[in-house]
Amino acid sequence: MAWFVLVVSGLLEAVWAIALDRSAGFSRPLPTAIFGVAVVASMLGLGYALRSIPVGTGYAVWVGIGAAGTAVTGMVALGESVSVLKIFCLLLVVGGVVGLKYAH
């Protein structure tokens, strides 16, 4: 259960990062509200998961999922540039996250 919560919390990290960008410095109410809810839920989930997953592993997986999710969302939905190097690097991040899960 802790790993499932950690993955969901990592996805919520991507949500709050995108909402933070879209909030335009907290001047737009809906993205600001989404940011607030997602960041709190993401942190609560991370805290829950760290009860049974070591902090180094849990935090690295959480950040990796959030970073990869944010980067993919930027490329797919927000018009950010896509390159073979970016995709390769994202695959390295995902591979590292999977590796940490199995090394645990």
TrEMBL record:
The keyword Cell membrane applies. It comes from the Bacteria. InterPro entries: EmrE-like (IPR037185), Small_drug/metabolite_transptr (IPR000390), Small_multidrug_res (IPR045324). It is a multi-pass membrane protein. Belongs to the drug/metabolite transporter (DMT) superfamily. Small multidrug resistance (SMR) (TC 2.A.7.1) family. Coiled coil: none annotated. Gene3D superfamilies: 1.10.3730.20. SUPFAM superfamilies: Multidrug resistance efflux transporter EmrE (SSF103481). The chain crosses the membrane at residues 33-50, 59-78, 84-103. This is SMR family transporter. It is found in: Cell membrane. It comes from Actinoplanes oblitus. Its main location: membrane. It holds the Pfam family Multi_Drug_Res. Keywords: Cell membrane, Membrane, Transmembrane, Transmembrane helix, Transport.
